[in-house]
Please model this.
Amino acid sequence: MAEIQLHNTLSGNLEPFVPQKPGEVRMYTCGPTVYDYAHIGNYRTFVFQDILRRFLKLRGFQLQHVMNLTDVDDRIIANAAAAGKNIRDYTEKFAQAFFDDCKTLSIEAPEHWIRATDHIDDMVQLIERLQKKTFTYASEGSIYYRIAKFPNYGKLSKIDLTGIQAGARVDNDRYEKESARDFALWKAPKPGDHFWETAIGPGRPGWHIECSAMAMKYLGETLDIHTGGIDLAFPHHENEIAQSEAATGKPFARYWLHAEHLLFEGEKMSKSLGNFFTLRDLFAKGYKPAALRFALASVPYRKQLNFTFDGLTQATNSVERLRNLADRLQQGNFPAGKQSGMIERISKAHEEFDTGLSDDLNTARALAAVFDLARDANTAMDKGEFRQGDVDATQQFLVTFDKVFAVIEDNDAQKLRALGYGSADAGPSDAEIEKLIAERIAAKKKRDFPTADSIRKELADRGIILEDAKDGSVRWKRK
Ligand code: AMP
Ligand code: ZN
Model:
C-alpha cells in the first residue's frame, strides 16, 4: 500500500501522514453554525472530511473524530430573540436538519458530535488559563486575546501582520481593543441578549475559543488532524492556534487540512451572497442523494469545485453506471472459470485506487481506477468473456470502493422518503410490481440488460427492492 501523503496548510507541503499514536487518529472538524440550513457548499467540505475519515478507517486507523455544532453566535442570539425562543429551541431545528442531511449524504457520524453551548465551562476554564498567562485583557466587560504576545501568530495562514506587530499600537481611547486584530474570547452581554453568568463575568464565548476548548477536551492538547473549509484558516484557525498553544505551550494540531470552496457561477456559494442551494432544493428538482455526494466528492478537495446542474446530471449517470455493474455482477450467469488476466486487472485497479487516495485524497484518480475497471469488466461481459470465477474479486473491489465513496449501495428512495419526498406516491400496487418483474425476467432472458436494469431502477425509485434468488425466481419487498 502506498504511503499516505496529506497537504498540511501549516507547512504548505505534502507530508507523509503519521499519527502520534500508531493506529489511532485524533481529528477535529469545525462543524456548521446552526442558524439556518446548511448549503451544498458547506457539504462539499463535510463530504471531504467524510472521505478522509472513511479512507483512514479503510487503512485500519481507529478514529477519534469530533465535530462541533456552533450553536451560539451573534446571528443565533439575534434570530432567537426575534423569534421569541431560547437558543436551544431556535437551533434545534437546524441541528436536526444538519444531522438528517449528513445521513442523507452518507456522511458518517463522528465519534463525538457536540454542541458549543454544552461546553461553556470548558471555555471559561481555558480563558482563565490564558488570563493567568497574561494573554488577555478586559475591555468594557469583554475579554480579548492579546495577539502581540504570541509571536507565532500568522504561521498557518501566512498572513502579513506588519500593521499590528509591536509598535503599531492603536489609540486606546478611540478603540476598545489594544490592537485592531485582537479578538474577543468572551463577549459582554448587550441589553436583552442571552448570556451566561460565569467566573469570568456575564457574557458569552467568542467563536474561536469554542473550538479550542472542545477540541482539547475530547482529543488532548495536540490533535493529529484539524480540518475545515479554506475560509476558516484565517482568522478562525489562526486564532484557535494562538489560544491553544498559548495555554498549553504545545503544538495544537499536527496536520491542518483545508477544503477549497464550491463555486456557483464563478462565486463562492454562500448564505450572504444568496447564491446557494440546500439539499432540499436539489431533491425537489429530482436529483438524488448519491448523485450529489458523488458530485461533491469527485473533485479533489484542494481544487475549487464549480457546481453545475450538468455536472450533477453527469454524476447521476456515473453512479448509475457503477450500480449497473454491481447488478450485472450479482445477476449475471457467467461461464465457469476465470478470464485470463482479469484478477491482475482487478488488483491493479485496487492498487491505483489506493494510490490515488493516498496522494492527498486524489478522488479523481481513485474514481478513474474504478471506472477503468468498470469499462473493462462491462466490455468483457458484453463479449461473453467475463467468467463466474472473477465475480467475487470484482465485487470485493466495488465494496472497498464503496466503503469510501458510499454511492453504489442504493438507498436513495428510502432517504428521500425519510425527508418527506415521494411520500405522496404510495408506491406501485402488488399487481403492477408483479407485471414489471415479469417484464424484467423476460428482458433478462433475451439478455436485454439495459431494459432489465431500467425496470429494476424504476422499481427501486418507487421503493421496491428486488432480490434475485439463485433458482432464477425473484422476491420483492417494499423499503
Ligand atoms: P459555517 O456553517 O459557515 O461555519 O460553515 C461550515 C463549513 O462549511 C466550514 O468548514 C466552511 O469553511 C465551509 N464552507 C462554507 N462555504 C463553503 C463553500 N462555498 N464551499 C466549501 N466549503 C464551504
Ligand atoms: Zn472551529
Summary: The chain has three domains: 5-259, 267-418, 430-478. The CA atoms of residues 1 and 252 lie 29 Å apart.
